């Protein structure tokens, strides 16, 4: 009940509220209703309770002791030994009551701030005398999976812990380790049981799982936090489609391009990894590099067994026709690259991919994971060099052209060098850098060229300098490089972002390129032709070969079916590359042993 003075105080306050509200209340009955409600005793009591709680909060009670339950039981023990009077007996009876005992236990739990569920103490008879190496482990069961897999030891028949997933409940407990032998689960002996019979025992457990374990001798060898290992997956993986995975639930699906943090490599066949995006997530099993390489090797690498195409006698390239001739839009520097023009009539019979014939003869090493490191791109950093690769005719130049037209301030192309004479409208430094044979050969000797070749007795080439010149303007330099030359520019200096333009299915090629016409001889602008069925098949075959040989270098794969869709996807992707933030780049870029680009270019002795 409220005291007299408190009651008066509340009434005064409420009268004040009423007088203030009077001017805002238009109807008499509303006013009366409000008045009667505020004058209710219950409302006044609520005020009082609120006031008391506030006072209590300010006092912030501290428990006098943390072990009231133990003190009570000690007291009872002491009192029972004395010649007790009735009051003492009553007190002992009170202390013995389960409700009172529980009350004191709750008090102690709050006092000790022990709010986690408590585990039942291990019974004294849990261990047989001869089993002194056995330990009992109790884990509180939550919604989180245990994060461990089990297997039957073939030699002993025992159930052992096969794997502890990093970050899982078992791992966090630090009490269960790989190689531990499970003797019992919740008191049920596991002798002669199969792993699939053990799983329901674990699933049935309610709030706690108790294991009887014989510790194994295996120790974990995890990479330390300082040496985090990240890889980019170079293939798609779905545990659901993998009959060999030890436990589908414990495995992790990923797609090509995902960056994974490897957290355990102890097992030669199954590693543990988690997504690099979320390093607190539970780790999952993934096939190790060795395992996946073996799997790939067992698959017949198709490109290796394709019939070899005859190689043309002369190792030279043709300069492609100017785009102005085809599209009416002239973009300086945006000519056919120094890739062999496979659309020309001359290369038709020889087929357009002789360049690959020497390279595919060697054994292709399957690519599974590539080590990557985070690179924090800042707004002030130069744009990365963007390299587009793809089989001839797939649309590399078309996409490059669209990018430059769409945003000439953002995208640029390098101006090639040549030793031939300037023609008609051509401008120095715009269409070409026209240089002498002596200067060109000097540049070759000084490893200043990324690619070069000769055509009709003249040199043509792309120099490192011309790429630099575009990069210093703050633009993204778009290059079209033969994939075999990628290794020479795959360095931290250029930070290349490599996009593979891939053909769609042959049906889609037929649909989208049926009416496409292109120049097939630069000397004769009237000579246009359309794609043949053979061109489509060659394009697909060559793309497969490229992907299996150089796929590990590709940051992005764009399928060029519908050109507008492919262009949109490419543009959006490059916009992300241009943004500041963390990007994943090859770990080799940070290794000092890497040869400098210029030195590497020294290997470019052959023409292409
Ligand atoms: N998705 C597409 N749909 C229809 N036509 C396309 C598509 N992509 C490119 N093309 C057309 O196909 C022809 C060949 O494309 P492009 O010249 O870009 O190929 P490329 O990969 O650069 O080959 P090359 O180096 O031999 O020129 C061009 O006429 C181009 O406009």
TrEMBL record:
CDD domains: GMPK, PDZ_MPP3-MPP4-MPP7-like, SH3_MPP. It comes from Oryzias melastigma (Marine medaka). It holds the Pfam family PDZ. Residues 226-296 form the SH3 domain. SUPFAM superfamilies: L27 domain (SSF101288), P-loop containing nucleoside triphosphate hydrolases (SSF52540), PDZ domain-like (SSF50156), SH3-domain (SSF50044). Residues 61-118 form the L27 domain. Keywords: SH3 domain. It comes from the Eukaryota. Residues 136-217 form the PDZ domain. Belongs to the MAGUK family. Residues 383-575 form the Guanylate kinase-like domain. InterPro entries: GK/Ca_channel_bsu (IPR008145), Guanylate_kin-like_dom (IPR008144), Guanylate_kinase_CS (IPR020590), L27_C (IPR014775), L27_dom (IPR004172), L27_dom_sf (IPR036892), MAGUK (IPR050716), P-loop_NTPase (IPR027417). This is MAGUK p55 subfamily member 7-like.
């Amino acid at each position: 009940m409220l005291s007299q003075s408190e009651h008066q105080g509340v009434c005064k306050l409420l009268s004040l509220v009423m007088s203030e509200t009077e001017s805002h209340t238009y109807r008499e009955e509303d006013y009366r209703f409000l008045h009667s409600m505020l004058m209710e005793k219950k409302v006044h009591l609520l005020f009082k309770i609120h006031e008391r709680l506030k006072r209590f909060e300010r006092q912030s009670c501290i428990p006098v002791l943390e072990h009231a339950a133990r003190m009570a039981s000690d007291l009872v023990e002491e009192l029972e030994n004395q010649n007790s009077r009735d009051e003492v007996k009553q007190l002992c009876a009170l202390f013995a009551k389960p409700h009172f005992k529980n009350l004191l236990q709750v008090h102690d739990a709050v006092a000790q701030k022990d709010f986690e569920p408590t585990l039942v103490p291990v019974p004294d008879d849990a261990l047989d005398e001869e089993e002194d190496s056995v330990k009992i482990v109790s884990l509180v069961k939550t919604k989180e999976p245990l994060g461990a897999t089990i297997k039957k030891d073939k030699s002993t028949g025992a159930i052992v812990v096969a794997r502890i997933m990093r970050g899982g409940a078992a791992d966090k407990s630090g009490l269960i380790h790989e190689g531990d032998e499970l003797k019992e689960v919740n008191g049920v002996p596991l002798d002669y049981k199969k792993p699939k019979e053990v799983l329901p025992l674990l699933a049935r457990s309610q709030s706690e799982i108790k294991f009887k374990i014989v510790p194994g001798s295996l120790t974990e060898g995890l990479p330390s936090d300082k040496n985090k290992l990240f890889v980019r997956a170079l293939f798609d993986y779905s545990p659901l489609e993998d009959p060999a995975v030890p436990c589908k639930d414990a495995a992790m699906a990923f797609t090509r391009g995902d960056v994974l943090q490897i957290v355990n490599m102890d097992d030669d066949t199954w590693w543990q990894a988690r997504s690099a995006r979320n390093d607190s997530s539970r780790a999952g099993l993934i096939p190790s590099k060795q395992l996946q390489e073996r799997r790939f090797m067992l698959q017949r690498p198709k490109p290796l067994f394709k019939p070899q195409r005859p190689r043309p006698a002369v190792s030279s390239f043709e300069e492609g026709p100017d785009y102005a001739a085809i599209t009416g839009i002239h973009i300086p520097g945006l000519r056919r690259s120094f890739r062999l023009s496979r659309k020309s009539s001359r290369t038709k019979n020889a087929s357009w991919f002789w360049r690959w014939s020497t390279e595919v003869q060697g054994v292709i090493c399957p690519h599974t994971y590539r080590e990557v490191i985070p690179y924090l791109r800042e707004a002030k950093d130069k744009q990365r060099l963007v390299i587009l690769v793809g089989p001839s005719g797939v649309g590399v130049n078309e996409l490059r052209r669209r990018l430059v037209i769409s945003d000439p301030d953002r995208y640029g192309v390098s101006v090639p060098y040549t030793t031939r004479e300037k023609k008609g409208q051509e401008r120095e430094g715009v269409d070409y850098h026209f240089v002498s044979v002596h200067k060109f050969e000097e540049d070759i000797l000084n490893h200043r060229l990324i690619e070069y070749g000769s055509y009709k007795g003249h040199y043509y080439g792309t120099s490192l300098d011309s790429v630099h010149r575009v990069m210093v303007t703050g633009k993204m330099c778009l290059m079209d490089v033969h994939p075999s030359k990628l290794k020479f520019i795959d360095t931290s200096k250029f930070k290349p972002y490599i996009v593979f333009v891939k053909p769609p299915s042959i049906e889609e090629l037929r649909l989208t390129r049926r009416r496409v016409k292109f120049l097939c001889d630069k000397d004769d602008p009237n000579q246009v032709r359309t794609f043949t069925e053979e061109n489509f098949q060659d394009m697909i075959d060559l793309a497969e070969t490229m992907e299996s040989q150089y796929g590990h270098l590709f940051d992005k794969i764009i399928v060029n079916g519908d050109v507008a869709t492919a262009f949109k996807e490419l543009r959006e992707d490059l916009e992300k590359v241009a943004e500041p933030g963390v990007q994943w780049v090859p770990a080799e870029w940070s290794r000092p042993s890497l040869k400098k680009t210029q030195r590497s270019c020294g290997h470019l002795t052959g023409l292409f």
